[in-house]
Design a protein that fits this description.
Number of strands: 0
Number of domains: 1
Distance between the termini: 41 Å
Radius of gyration: 19 Å
Helix content: over 70%
Number of helices: 2
Length: about 70
């Protein structure tokens, strides 16, 4: 979780730097919306990807029946 949080913070810093040096006027609303949007998007994305790897590694994916399997 720490690595995901650090990645999220790094992405927020990168996004804010991109907006700042791109000439966008940096109001408080833009900073807050960008920081929350980028941070939460990175956390949700990395969290879901972690769950995919956890599910695959634990064997839960093999227990699901395929309704389109013609061998049944």
């Amino acid at each position: 979780m720490r690595w995901m949080t650090l990645l999220g913070i790094a992405c927020v810093i990168g996004a804010l730097a991109y907006l700042r040096y791109g000439g966008t006027p940096m109001t408080a609303q833009i900073v807050i919306a960008t920081a929350l949007g980028v941070f939460l998007t990175v956390l949700v994305g990395t969290g879901l990807m972690s769950l995919i790897f956890l599910s695959h590694g634990s064997g839960h994916d093999e227990q699901v029946d395929d309704p389109f399997d013609e061998r049944r």
